[in-house]
Amino acid sequence: MWPNFLASTLKSSRAFALNFGFYGLFKRVLSHDDKKSEFWKPLFAGGAAGATSLAIVYPIDCSKWKVFSGLAEQKSRNELGALYKGFGGSLPWVVMFRAMHFGGYDIAKEMIFSERKKGNFIEKYLVAYGVTMIAGFVSQPLSAVRDKQFRENRGLEKWKTGMGECVKKIYSEKGWRGFFGGMSRISVLSLSPALMLVLFDKLQYSWKGF
Known about the structure:
Helix content is 75%, strand content 0%. By secondary structure, the chain is mostly helical. It has a single domain, classed as Mitochondrial carrier domain (Mitochondrial carrier fold), CATH 1.50.40.10. Helix 1 packs across helix 9 and helix 5 runs antiparallel to helix 6. The longest helix is centred in the middle third of the chain and has 32 residues.
């Protein structure tokens, strides 16, 4: 399990760096708002960071997938559209997950620890791990729809199966359980994002000390 955990952490470091960078940016932008209500700001910043990072990383990952799957030589009338094929199906899941992941961690941290300094690395990791699993559970139905859409349209230049039709197919094939089919993996897949979340939190605090 640990080799896979390390490989997953290294593989996702690029996306994590973008997500954390944009999350900090959106948090600073929202901090200029004088409204007293702060609860929604981390959630909004997390979702916006996820959407912005996905827009940058998605065409790169899409090009790599086409090369590995042998589809790189296929020509498309709209090359830019081909690079963002399936982006609309991934966006809702990413926004939901990152909003709960980043925003949920900041909210939970403020509720559990009275001051940012309080709470050691292990305690914060346990909080981050719990928040990451909750984010995975909440966003799992959107992930199931996204995966179904990719499977249904694999190899097609123009996608014919939309998200609405995928929802109907999942429900007709497996019922409501079909939207929560990957739950058993979430406990393992949450290890790496939780670790990166705590490391970023520690780095943020260290930078403020300089």
